[in-house]
Amino acid sequence: MAGDDRESAGPEEERTPSWTLELQTERASRLLRTKGLREKAKKQQQRKAKKTIPDRLAHTYLQKKKEKTKKQKAKEEEEADWPLFQALGVNRT
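Request: output the structure for the sequence above.
Response:
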């Protein structure tokens, strides 16, 4: 039989059956995979921690800039429409 090489190979190879080797390699690969995923997550967390503060500052800066431009545009539109309101007799309050 071609599949029974283990039995005829000798006492050295019979110490560890093939299913035991498969389990060991599967377990080792699983451990390496989880270790790799943990390391990847840890590195990602560190990168995120480094970026967090500057990103927050940039976000608040941009948010304030948007609000400021909105207020400025509203004020400019109001100033542009003011002669029309004056002609209608509306007082500025």
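Confidence is low (pLDDT under 50) at residues 1-5.
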